[in-house]
User: What shape does this take?
Amino acid sequence: MALLETRGLSKSFGRLEAVKDLDLTVEQGELRGLIGPNGAGKSTVFNLITGFDVPTRGTVWFRGENITNVPAHKIAQKGISRAFQQSYLFMFSTVLENVLVGCHMSSRAGALREFLHTRSARMRDREARNKAMEILDFMGMAHLADEPASSLSHGYQRCLGVAMALACEPTLLLLDEPVTGMNPTESAEMVERIRRIREKGITVILVEHSMEVVMNVCERITVLSYGQKLAEGLPAEIQCNPLVVEAYLGKEEA
Amino acid sequence: MRRAMLFKSNKWWLIPAFLLAVALPFFVGAYRLQIFIFVITYSLLALAFQLTMRVGLPRFDVAAWWGVGAYTSGMLMLKANMSFWLTLPISVLVSVVLGFAVFSVSVRRGMMVFMMFGMVFALALQQVFGSVKFFGGWGGTPQLPPVTIGSYVLNDKMWIYYLGMALLIFNLGVYQLLYKSRIGRAWSAIGSGLRLASSLGVNVVGYRLANVLVGNAFLALAGSFSVVYQAMIIPTTYGFQQSIYVMMYVVIGGLGFAMAGPIVGALVLTLISESMRAAQQYQPIVTGVITVLIIMFAPWGLLGVLRSRVVSVLQRLLSSRAALPDIPSSLGSPASVTAEEPGKDA
Ligand SMILES: Nc1ncnc2c1ncn2[C@@H]1O[C@H](COP(=O)(O)OP(=O)(O)OP(=O)(O)O)[C@@H](O)[C@H]1O
Ligand SMILES: [Mg+2]
Assistant: This one.
C-alpha cells in the first residue's frame, strides 16, 4: 500500500483547470520532487492533499484511508504537514510560540487539566517546549527562539515554516519551494536538512523551481504542466525527456 | 532582550488599581457609585467582545445574550419565586445551550456569516422580549422582587458594587487561565492565521465555538447581575445599540489589551457620556467621533498610547539603543482582527 495516492484528482477554478486527472503515488520513505512551470498547479495539488481546497473530482488516499473531504486540521492530525510557499507565520508571536502551535495537538492533556494548569499539564507543556527547542535547534535557529517572527530574515522565516510543520510530527511532509529567495549558503543548508528529515523516516514531497536542488536531492520526480502529469521518473530520465525540456523551454520563450 | 522581559513582567499597576477599586465606595456617593456599577457591567460585556476578537470573530450580539441572562434570572424570580442566586447557574446554562444551537450553525461558516447571524438573532430576540406577553412587553417586566442574602436585602449600592467587582475579577481570572493554557494558544493562533492554524492541526471551528460559548456564559452572568440593581427589566436596555457601544469600549481601550483594554474603554466612555448628561442627544455623536479618531490616530487604543509613552520614557531613562518592542507579542495585535483569510474555513 502506498503512503499517498491520488486518483483522477482534478480542480477547476471557474473555467481554468488548475489540476486535471492527476494520478500520483508516493511510497513510504520516498523523497519525491514535484516540478513544473509557473502556474502548473503544484501548490494546488498540495492544497487538495491537505484539505485546503476541495477537489472538483477525484480522491486522495492516505495510508489506505480516503481523506478527500476531510477538514484540514484532521488531515494535519493524521500526519500530513505542509510548509507554505509564502512565508506564512504568526508574525506577532515569538519563534518558539510559533513552533509550539505545531506541537499543539501532540501535547494535549485534556481541556480541564490544561485549563487548571495541573502538574501533568505543566509537564506536558514543558515537554512541548523541549520538543520545540529541539526542532529549532535542528533548523539551526535555536538562538532566535524568543525573537518575534516578524523580525526574522527571509531565510529564517522559511526555516521557521518548515520547523512548524515538523512540530506536528508528520508522516508526510509537503514542502512548497522551501529554498526560494534564500542565498546559496542557506539554500545548501536547507537541502541538507531536507535529506536528514527524510533519513528520519519522514516521507517528503518537494516542490521546487531550482532544477539543481531537485535533481540533486530527489530520487523520483513528477513533472506537472497545465495541471496534468507530463512525466515521472528518475532525475536522469526527466532531464533528457523531450516533453519536459519543451515544457520548460517553451515557457522561457513565451 | 532582558529589558523587554523586565518591562513585560511589570504588573505593579495592578495593585494600586485594585486598591483604588476597592476603596472607591468610600469616596463617591450612591449616585456616582451606580455609574461605576454600570462601568463594571459594561466591562463584562466588553470582555466578551474582546474574547471573540481573539479568534477573529467580531460579535454584535453581545447585548442580546446579556438580555438572555437578565430575562432568565428575572423571569425565574418573578414567575417561579426562585432565589436570585439559584438563577445564576440556570442563566448561564440557558445562554450556553441556546448559544450552542445558534453558533454551531454560524461559526463554521466563517466570520461574515457569524457576524450577520448574530445581528439578526439579536434583533429578533429583542422583538421577542418586547412583544411576547410573557416577558412583560416593551414597557418592561413587573417590579422585580429584591435580591436577598438570607434575610438581608441587597440594595446597598456599596455591596452591589462589590458583588460586581467579584464577578469582574472572577471573569478576569478565568480568562487569564484560559489565555495561558493551550486553549488560549490555539485561540491566538486562529486569530492571527486561520489557515496556518488549521494546517497545524488546530480545529478552528471547535475552538471558535468554545470561545464564543465562554463569552456567552459571562454575558449571562452580567445579565443576571444587571437584575440586582434594576427595579425591572426593559427590553431596549439590551438592544443593538448597546452592542455597538461595547465595540467602541474595546476599540477605545485598545484591541491589543486582552484584560485592561475593555475595562479602560468602558470606564472612559461611560464617564464621558455621564458628563454629557445635559446634552444627551449629542452623546452618540461625540462618542462616535472619539472612536473614529482613535481608530485613525491611535489604532492601539488609549492603552496603546499610554504604553508607547511609558516605553519612550523608559527608553530615555535606560538610554538603551535597542528599541523596545512597542507592544509585547503576548498581547496579540490589531492585525489579528483582520486576519481572516478568504476561502475554505478549514
Ligand atoms: N484560489 C484560486 N482561484 C483561482 N485561481 C487559482 C486559485 N489558486 C490557483 N489558481 C490558478 O491555478 C493555477 C495553478 O496555480 P498554482 O498556484 O497551483 O501553480 P504553481 O504550480 O504552484 O505555480 P508557482 O510555481 O507559481 O507557485 C494558476 O493559473 C493559478 O492562477
Ligand atoms: Mg506554487
Notes: The longest strand of chain A covers residues 16-26. The interface with chain B takes residues 50-54, 71-74, 76-77, 81-82, 84, 88-94, 97, 100-102, 104-105, 107-109, 111, 114-117, 121, 125, 146, 148, 164-165, 167-168 of chain A (CB under 8 Å). Residues A 42-43, 85, 176 surround magnesium ion (ligand 2) (CB under 6 Å). Strands of chain A lie at 4-13, 16-26, 31-35, 57-62, 65-66, 80-83, 172-176, 203-207, 220-225, 228-233.
